[in-house]
Amino acid sequence: MRAVPRLLLIEDDPAIRTPLLRALRDRGHAVAAATTAMDGLRAALDDRPDLVVLDLGLPDVDGTELLRMLRAVSRVPVIVATARDAETEIVRVLDAGADDYVVKPFTAAQLDARIRAVLRRGPAAATDETIVVGDLEIDPRSRGVRLDGVPVDLTPREFDLLHHLATRRDEVVTKRELLTEVWQIPYGGADKTVDVHLSWLRRKLGETAAAPRYLHTVRGVGVRLATPDTAP
């Protein structure tokens, strides 16, 4: 990452954009701005910022759709900054690939702290090698999964969850760790988010919590990924 972080702010409201640009620059960031989703996408691809701050209520394309478009071609960190505060919306956007979510109104100091926290995480250190667990193949380069040789269609968050568990195969991974490492949000009251995604992932792998093959819940602790013939 550069000595001076380069940020891209995608925000159409000048009453928010102008003071936020000034405040972030005062805090040592180099900040460019875009006022539409398509201009923001072009700027993200052409200028390769260190981080994107994204509003959802854009005039041409909804910010969630822009996030999906961006995630298809880039792993640049994205902090969503929006007035939408429904839990379902927050979960949906984080599942689409956002690294953090900030609800308006917020101060520039609060956003700056979130930016610094996301930038400290740095790029993912996971190996690019395909991970094989029994008949399950997980390829981080293509973000593809195959079970018994058949492709499995996963959402970005489901893939991240499965890949993290695979890198810790045969170990019990706590929900606290999953929220921190996969969702990249602080632990606290979000256990159901993990449970719901594990349920969806199990269904796509052809198993259930009552009859697990790969994903084994350890009650009160977390979950473990293991090959079917070695799991107790």
From TrEMBL:
An example molecular function term from Gene Ontology annotations: DNA binding
All residue ranges annotated as the OmpR/PhoB-type domain in the record: 128-227
Gene3D superfamilies noted in UniProt: 3.40.50.2300, 6.10.250.690, Winged helix-like DNA-binding domain superfamily/Winged helix DNA-binding domain
Modified-residue entries (4-aspartylphosphate), positions: D55
InterPro entries according to UniProt: CheY-like_superfamily (IPR011006), OmpR/PhoB-type_DNA-bd (IPR001867), Sig_transdc_resp-reg_receiver (IPR001789), WalR-like (IPR039420), WH-like_DNA-bd_sf (IPR036388)
CDD domains registered for this protein in UniProt: trans_reg_C
Matches recorded under SMART domains: REC, Trans_reg_C
SUPFAM superfamilies: CheY-like
Protein name: DNA-binding response regulator
Source species of the chain: Asanoa siamensis
